[in-house]
Amino acid sequence: MKQHLPRFLLGLLVLAVLLGHAAGLYRIGFIERFDAIIYDTKVRLTMPRNVDERLVILDIDEKSLAEVGRWPWNRERMATLMNKLFDRNGVALLGFDIVFAEPDASSGLPVLESLAKKDGREAGVIQSLLPDLRHSLDYDALFAASLKNRPVVLGYYLSSKVDGTSSGALPPPTLPAGTFTGRNIAFTSWPNFGGNLPAFQKNAAGGGHFNPLVDFDGISRRVPMLAEHKGAYYDSLSLAMVRALLGSPPLVPGYADGSGGSGYAGLEWLDLPTARGNLRIPVDENVAALVPYRGFQGSYTYISAADVLADRISAEQLKGKIVLMGTTAPGLMDLRATPVGSTYPGVEVHANLISGMLDGAIKYRPAYVLGADVLLVLIAGGVMVFLLPLLSPFRASIVALIVLVFLLTVNLSFWHAGNMVLPLAAGFLLVTLLYALNMSWGYFVESKAKRQFTELFGQYVPPELVDEMAKNPEGYTMDGRKAELTVLFSDIRGFTTISEGLQPDQLATLMNLYLGSMTEVVRKHRGTLDKYIGDAIMAFWGAPVSDAEHARNAVITALDMQEALHGLNVDLQAKGWPELKIGVGINTGTMTVGDMGSKVRKAYTVMGDAVNLGSRLEGITKQYGVGIIVGDGTRDLTKKDFVYRELDRVRVKGKAEPVGIYEPLGQEGQVTKEDLEELKLWNQALRSYRAQDWDQAEVMLLNLSRIRSRYLYDLYAKRIAHCRQEPPGEGWDGVTTFETK
Fold first, then answer.
1. How confident is the model at residue 127, as a pLDDT?
2. I need a surface site. Which of 346, 409, 517, 589 has the fewest CB within 10 A?
3. For residues 570 and 498, is the Cβ–Cβ distance under 8 A?
């Protein structure tokens, strides 16, 4: 675990930074932009894309401007339009995404009134006619009269210009000043407004602002359902129209604790209680509603205002409809950037909100979604931080994919099933960054460590062991230490004679084939290649990577080397080259292992009495006519795994204590019944020999020779003959002493 600590710490740092953003302690701009992109994408992918037949947009389009004239039209024409909408076409509700802020002087009435104030006969005539003319020429009065007692909601705008002046009149506030005293609610507040003429607002059924909230990227995603102006709170145009449609029910603020008291300050919804039930409108921390875009432009029926004025539509097209009057003409500047279009008509924004309120389709984004985001980021980050450093690149990729799918599934489940908007960018970026961090670390840092290990150990240790060591580099060192290990020496018999019979290039090819084949066997069984000494090979097991079965692996290697040599000899004989025979000595014991040598040259090797004994055992294989000899230490650790033939007890040069030497015949369970019977007879012969029962030993050796001719049997037959001539005496221990290496 220690080698993964830097990655854990870096991962926790990334997690802490993104947790701070998710918790709202600070805002990271590009994450907010990414979240906005994700939100817009979800809106576009999940919007119904159908037409809401309940609403109609009465459009001041280019056709209307061409037929009726430039905007604004005179109020007489507007009064005519009102009468046609309600009397001829029977609309249920009309809302204006337009402000009627200035008096209409197009009839010439102000000029006549000015002339009537002058002296002269003409002024008298005008004064006498003025009362009758005023009734027909006061277009504002005509329009005001057309609004009275009709379900008409006028629109107005709120202004943020502090030094500006307000104009026109506002409708009565929806909620009076002081309604939210004691609660720290982040209402959108505007100090000024541009309203309709007082007579119009007085006669209308209501009024609402049409100010959207433009987000940091210039996109309109939300509209304040309630806006604050001088302490009082005013409806949006869409909310005012829905209230008018439902009979103007009171607006009831909804809090998370349900008490309306001074506990948690979050205003999370607005309720409209009606006889048909309660209509709930979710709002966010700014008391704004997310616009539930139904589709791209054209999700509502558009009817040209010119067609209504000219009676070119049937009454059925508008009867009982909710009508919003606005403009799509480019010159009238009511186009907005939205998630579903960069030039989207503002009037259709209000239409989407009305549809969403009536359908209950407005998404929730209360303040407490921060907690959900923090929890998801924490879960995802915890998994990624503490799991990825422990996994291979493939498994790490699978885990990262699973975490991403988990985050996406939870997010979309809340979106569809809970109608709730959860942030996704922080979690998505966290997974991406942590995955990239771990992959980069593995590529640049761990691969460097692996290269260093390869440089240090690669010439000795198999690649798979280098990979294993690189996972925990602190656990390995080339410093000298003592450990119980197993060493193997092998040598080609009669190599001098063989080399003299070959050309230099042939000898080089032969040695490359032989050493390559034997080295492959050593590495196959997790051996550490120490060195080549001419035609000899030295290897050991148990270092630098610990191996609880170092003795067993060494013996298997020796058996496989003999087997591999048979296959190699077939190829050599095909070339007309001499057959090779090798002797292998193996010994287990305490050795010193480490990087040893001088400043000029060092090598990772083993030293000690146990190593020297292994070399001596290889040297005496030819004395017994066998291919492999192992010492007591190796045999004691592996006697349950292999079948051994005890060869002798010997005292090698440089060592006073005698040791038993053994020939491995094969793995337990793989030695033939005939060989086991032969071994049984041999053991009896060896016991007789050591008991100085020469006759019995000689008879058994004769029987063994009839079963199979072995150099070993002949060797002991000669020893018996020698002992008959020169009896060893009472204190003979049966040990053979070798005076040469």
1. 56
2. 409
3. no
pLDDT in tens, 487-502: 999 999 999 888 888 8
Average pLDDT of the chain to the nearest whole number? 88
* Confidence (pTM): 0.65
Q: What is the DSSP letter of 526?
A: T
Which residues have C-beta within 8 Å of that of residue 695, sequence separation ≥ 6? Answer: none
Domains and CATH numbers, the chain: 2-46+368-453 (no CATH), 55-154+195-223+236-252+292-359 (no CATH), 476-668 (3.30.70.1230), 672-741 (no CATH)
CA distance 133 to 126: 9
Tokens representing residue 588 in the block: 């287990």
DSSP 8-state class, residue 177: T
φ/ψ bin of 722: left (φ > 0), alpha (ψ from -120 to 50), beta (otherwise)? alpha
pLDDT digits (tens, 9 = 90+) for 562-618: 999 999 999 999 998 999 999 999 999 999 998 887 777 778 889 999 999 999 999
- Rounded to whole angstroms, how far apart are CA atoms 550 and 677? 30
**C-alpha–C-alpha distance, residues 94 and 104, integer Å:** 21
**C-alpha distance from residue 94 to each of 91, 231, 296, 351 (Å):** 7, 28, 23, 12
Q: What are the strands of the beta sheet with 220-224, ordered from one edge?
A: 213-214, 220-224, 288-290
Q: For residue 438, what pLDDT band results from cuts at 50, 70 and 90?
A: confident
Q: What is the largest CA-CA distance in the chain?
A: 176
Q: ∠ CA 62-64-65 to the nearest 5 degrees? A: 65
Query: Residue 313 in contact with residue 89, Cβ under 8 Å?
Result: yes
For the chain, give the percent of residues with pLDDT over 70. Answer: 88
Are the CB atoms for 426 and 18 separated by under 8 Å? yes
Are 233 and 221 a contacting pair, CB within 8 Å?
Answer: no
Is the pLDDT reported for residue 143 higher than 50?
yes
Length of the chain: 741
669 and 660 Cβ atoms separated by less than 8 Å = no
Q: How far is CA 296 from CA 57, 59, 274, 334, in A?
A: 15, 17, 32, 16
